[in-house]
Every structure is written in structure tokens, then in C-alpha cells.
Give the backbone structure.
Amino acid sequence: MDKLRNQIRNIFDTAPFAVLAFDASGTVIYINPLLERNIETVALPFVGKSLYEITHKLLVDERLEKSLKRLIETDKPFSMIVETLSSKLVKTSGFFNIIGYKLGAMYILIGDFVSGGLSRDSRYRQLIEEAPDAVVIMNHGTITFANPAFTSIVGQSASELQGREIFELVDEKGREDLASLTENHAKGFFSRINIRTVKGTKILEGNFHFIEERPGTSVALLRDVTDKVALERRLLRQNQDLAAVNLISKTLSSSIDLEEVLQSTLAQVLQIMNIEAGWIYLLDEKKQVLKVAYSYGIPDHVVQAIRELNIGDGIAGRVAVNGEPIIIENASTDQRISSMDFKKQGIKSFASIPLYSRTRLIGVMNIGSFGERTISPDDERLLITIGVHMGTVMENILLFQEIADTSKELKDALGLIRQRNEELRTLVTTVSHDLKNPIIAINGFCERFMKTAGPKLNEKELEYLRAIQESGRHMERFVSNLLTLSAVESLKLKKEEFPVGELIDEISREVASQLDEKGGTITIEAPLPSVKADRVRLMQVFSNLISNAIKYASPQRPPMIRIGYQKRPTTHVFSVRDNGLGIAREHLESIFDIFFRGGYEGDVEGTGIGLSIVKKAVTVMGGEVWVSSEKGAGTVFYFTLPIE
């Protein structure tokens, strides 16, 4: 080894390029004088230190560390371009080629500090031109160089781009974000920008660096993240649509008065869609006409002009016949709309949606916007889903009204209503399942992609993939909780006798890792009894309350969870007490409402469904649940079970 080290010293001490040697453990055993002169003295000496620590400190480039480990593991040489623009410890700034290979029992790194990077060495230019990421060099924001990756994204040649300002390619927000490129010197920054291309808008993100030795010169290293952003938006839209469907379902089930349901539901639909006007037709099956049952946002004289439509007439009449929605971009000029009173209102975006139950057409819902509000395919799908919910519930109400005159008919109607409500619950479950399956598929493919391609990705790419995984897992938990909430009420009550202490032990084992992470404890304050109850539902109650106590623990102290019990003449009274963040007084009345999170949105992870599950499970078992809390001082949940 000493002989080989001396040979390396004799060869490389006077070399016109930087040289570093290291052994199989990653320990530096030699650097030549040229490399030493180009490194700030505060980072020296290198010999005897870990090369991984050195590269991590000198270069903001995780790829180099991975390439070094791969060289030691496989003995295969590598060549790569690194940039030292963002490193204050490397005196020479620019783009440099680094070559790594094995020499005997040692490993050698060679870097060219002499050429000065891209401007003087055609080899570097070739490597950058072949890079998969976009590289753009600018002088006060004017493009002086663009590699093929960037020209391919934009759809213009390098000669067409040279001399143009990058501000011409971006939107107003992008121009604001990139304003500092016009300065002589500025701090490097990260930005996500929308680039106009011949094929539409592309979304790029990456770092912008300034070269100190060349005032006004900046370099952008960018990656196309259009597909990633589109996936993020799809996941967000699915989340929003699921919440909207459940909100509409809750509104529909709030009353059996048809006018009240129409009024409140249409108001919710207009708010969700951000649209100003709407009206609902109901079908008179005997006369085969559509009649306006409720309207909002349009004058009475216009309502009178469109109050009745024969099946097949007008937009709503065609929707009633075909059973398919109709979307119109500008209702005030569309020839399919015949009412001049309606056209004079100036409605632009317009949608007509059928309201179907499982068995028949109930009516048609029309909505329209006076401003620039495009109704997208995603909006159309959401409206169709809402239309099915509305049709099912409205059929229940109409059936109830039709047969409420006699007791026999009322009895039959109640049976039909129960059936329809069961169909509605089934529909909610089906919608949740339909959303869950693609989410599970996304998570599965992400996991498979992480296993197969993970070692080939850089840290930024892995960060993107982890963000997608986390979003998918959150959506999967959200839908699973919705399914659990639906099952709590619909599953048959199954009572059995068992000791409550066994449940607490089982839950404690399940949350042990979460508790250990926060240094928390679970304490049983009083002997717990055996009860005759539904074991699955009681497990859901304790599990959600204990999980919430851990989730909403105070960062200032370890979580302390205490399980209490009192026996009363006819009921068991249980309590779950914590010392966590607590709940503000104004939120206590709403804490059991679905999707309500007590003002903690953004602070902790959750779906706002857990306490709704607790409330339903306790109610189904014949008990009651309530809460006592003080902001910052912890919370106590109490619930009862009947003694049989």
C-alpha cells in the first residue's frame, strides 16, 4: 500500500488536474497540491477523514456520494458533472467533470479545475447537453445557453431561445419569482415556474445559481414536474370530491320536507361549485312535464318563462329524455336555448344534470355562472354523483308525501324509505370503495416503483415519490375511516361478555411504538369490569380515543393517558383522560361532527372522522358520550354503557 501511495504521489503531485485517493472504507489517503489549493483552508486537511463526510460538506449533490459507494461495491468506474456554484468551500466555481476508478487496492478521483468548466472545455458542454435535466445559462435574465433537455420541453431550438429573456416564457407569477435574475449578484434560490411551450404549459422546478466571477450571469438547473403536479392535483380533487359528496349526503338527510331539502341542497351545490344561480325541476310523471320546484339567483319573471317544460323541450327536457348531462360554455349565445328572457341574464357556464334514483328520473338540476367559470370534466363527474344522491333522497321524500294519508300506506312508505336509505348508505359505501381502489393502486405502484427504481433516483426525486406516497396513504386512511363510519351504524349489534381490561391491553400493544416515540404512558386508574356489549364497537371507541390522545399530545410534555371507571345503578361510566393540547370551548359542541377537527387543521395529521365513529358506536350500544376540556390543559372523554 505504501509503495502504491508513493507511486501515486510521484505521478499526481504535479498533475494539472485535481486528484484524490481513498481506500475501500472511504478514508482519504492522498490529495494532490492542486486540489488542496482549490479548497478553503477551513475544510482541510482531508487525509484520514471520511470522503463521504467531505463530499457532503463541500457539494450539494447526493449523486456523488451514491456514485462513490457504487464504485467501492462494484469496482466499475464512473464519470459525472458536478457544480460548485453553491459551495463556499470550493474556491473554483463552475461545472466540473469528476472521474472515479479503482487503481490496485486504492480508488482514485480526478477532477478538472483547470478548464474552468463549461465555457472552456467542450467535453463538459457535451455532458451537459446530454443531461436529462434542463440547464439554462442567462445574462441578466437573457438566455445565452440552453441544453437540448430545455429546448425539447419548450419546443424551440437553442438558436431561437438565445437572446430571448426567460421572462417571455413564464406567467406573471413566474416573472415576479425570477425578478432577481436581472441583478448582478443575488442569492441562489429555488422556484417552481409555469413555462409556455408549443404543446401548452409545462411546470418546471429547480435551483437558480449566480456566478460570482461573472456579474449578472446565472445558471438554472430545472426538472419537468408537470406529471407530478397533475397527480398531486388529482389526489387533492378526489379528497375534495369525497368531502363534497358526504356534505351533500348530510344535507339531504337533514329533513323530510321537500322544499327545505331542495333549498339547502341547492345552496350547498352552488357553494361547492362556486356558481351563482341554479334551479331544480321535478318531473310530473302523469303529465310528463318538468316543473320548477325551487330556484336561486335568477329573477322571478325569468323563472315564470321557464317554469314548465315538456319532456324533450329545452335543455332540461333533452336531459330528461337522454339521461345524460349537458354542459354549455356560453348560455347567452347558445342556439339550443330558446328562452330570450333567460338569454338576457348573461349566464355563461351552464350545466344541466339529471336527478335519478335507482328506479326512475326524479327531475333535472340546472346551474349557471355569470362569470368566467369553466365546468370541467371533474366538475361534471361530481355533479352526476351528487345528482344520484339527490334523486335517491328526493324519491324517499316524494314517496313519504304520496302515501302519508293512510296508516297502511304510511307503514309501506316507511318500509320503502328504509330500503331507499339502505340503498343510499350502500351508494356512499360504493362511492368510497370506488375511490379507495384507485388510491390503493397508486400506493401499490408507488411502493413497487420505490423498491425497483429507488436506488437509481436522487434525493429530490425520492422526496417527490415520498410526497406522493404520503398523500396516497392519507387518502387511503380517509376513505377507510369513512367505510368504518358507515359500518358502525349498519352492522348488526353483537353482544358478548368480556373483560374491558383485555381490550385496553390489546390497544396498548398496538400503540406501543407511538407512545414510546413520544415517551408516553397509559395508566388504568380503577379496576375495569367485565361488560356485556359489542366487542368490536367498544374496541373502536377506546382505540380512537387513545389514538387521539397520542396524536394531539402537547409538544411540551410526554403524553399521560389515564383510563377511568365508575359504576352507577344502571350504567358503566368510562373515561379517557389526557394531558394534551386540549380543545377550545367554542369547539366542544361540534367535536363529534364528521370532518370537524377542533381547530387543529394543518397542525396534526387526521381526517376528522374518528370522534364521529366513537359517537355512533356508543349510541348504537345504547350509551352516551360527552367531553370536558380546557385549551392547553388536556381533555377527558366520558361514555356510558348500559348494565344488563
